[in-house]
Amino acid sequence: MKRFAVTFLLFFICGTTAIAQVQFNAKVSKTTLGLNERLRVDFEMNRDGDNFSSPSFEGFRVVGGPNQAISNSYFNGKRTYSKTYSYFLSPTAKGKFTIGQASIEIDGETYKTVPIAVTVTEAKEVPIDATDPEYLANENVHLVAEVSKNNPFLNEAITVTYKMYVSRDVSVARGFREISSPKYADFWSQNIENGGNFKVYDGKYKGEDYRYVIIRNTVLYPQKTGELDIEPLTVEVPVEIPTRRRDLFGRPLMKRVNRTITAGSGTINVKPLPLEGKPDTFTGAVGEFSMEVTSNKTTLDANESLELNVKINGNGNLKLFDPPQVKLPSSLEVYEPEREENVRTNSTGMSGQISEKYIVVPQYKGNYPIRPISFSYFDPKTETYKTIASEEILINVANGPLSNEVTTTDEEGKQVVTLNKDQFKYIKLDADLQSMEEEPFFKSVAFWSLLGGPLVLIPLFILIGRKRKARLADVQGTRLRKADKMARKYLAEAKKNLGNKVVFYEAMERALHNYLKAKLNIETSEMEKERIATMLREREVSEATVDQFISLLKSCEFARYTPTSNVTMQQDYEHAAAVISNIDKQLR
């Protein structure tokens, strides 16, 4: 009896342990499939758990899932529990791939599945079934990318139009979504949004009548010469396919099929701007422009201010270059210009106006000529450079002090020096001395102040001198301070626009370009990322800092078209200041 009791107890314990054992397994619908087939992956467990984590599915794209299925049943007093996470995968390339480990936490323990090897072969021939919804969706819905120009010049606008063609045999439900969007790494880009209102047009696809909608228009300005790749746009579209079944009114019942379509990649061959005939005043403007230089007043008094505006109007890469700088006589005090932009971007590119407003304050009386300002641009239609110039503006300062540096113009247009006999009248010739006999100077307060004052100030001067000497001796600290000041100076405009995403990133991108102009002596048209990186390395800037700067330029291009918070903009601003400061410290 004792032996029987012990045996029964051991059997009961083993049975209980077997029932309580956790099982977590991965299963696939097939281990070998064609490039045009789909794979189902199930992750099954016999106990409920938390924090399920799926593998990355490298080599596949998830087209469905995760779907959950739970089974909970009792049979002969025994409870059976099963929970399954299911994924549907579409292979992206041929080869051997591994479905990695999934993990889940059950009762505080982490369990993982065993990796499964899957082989993807050539696409398999599938018998055509004219009634198969998958086949009908594949044959009746297409995505096409139309490029306005395949061989533009550097900084010339091109437009990529994404059209979705739908035959009249099927219909597309609203709610299609983008799976992958092109990044346009070597372009300045901007999407032309339609606000979700898609107009249906009639057109032809491969000679047959189709309807189409324009999903997106994207304007691109190439920033690099040579062959540039345009990444494909991929969208998932719910397609409604008619079936053989009918409703009560005799109308065919529809079946919805999710169809993944791709516009395909493309290559743009970007031509460099010609060197022949390139003027010295060319700063990278490409398009058709006009220039206007105006002053809000031409007659004023000394120490009054006037506004001098330099405006560039037209169509072209308005946001990618600076207006020409104004050079004024030294007797006119000029403040840093304030840039204003009124630029629209439509399907043909940028159009509008950019301007720089100068505040000018004359100090002395006289006539001040503002010489004509020249502006050059490249016209891609005629493939030639054009130069335009403003009219000369004469500023007349009617009232104010005279200076021997004040100039006027004679009849021949030559500058002559204007002198005046009263220009030294401010010098006081009468001394107006007073007698000191009433109060003797000796032993007075003034006497002791003059005598003891220098003795009191000597220690202060010594302390200030030592601190100044220590500050000058701190070469590294001096460089740090100068570098930080340089970074803040160039990023001042971006800081003003924190909170306004588009203006902020445009200002920060312009600040980075202006910094490069000042430090590397290059123009906007030469600012290719590879050239910038090469020049920084030649100036002994560390590889890490170069990578950070290039990454920052790319971030400015992408961030304008993605959701961004104020916290992210603040972080990008601090990052930009740190990178500019690091470059300034390392440049040789």
From TrEMBL:
Report the coiled-coil segments: none
Keywords (alphabetical) are:
Membrane, Signal, Transmembrane, Transmembrane helix
The UniProt entry, under Pfam families, shows: BatD
Which positions carry the signal peptide feature in this UniProt record?
1-20
- What are the TM regions of this chain, as residue ranges? 445-464
Annotated PANTHER family: BATD, PROTEIN BATD-RELATED
Q: What is this protein called?
A: BatD family protein
Organism equals: Jejudonia soesokkakensis
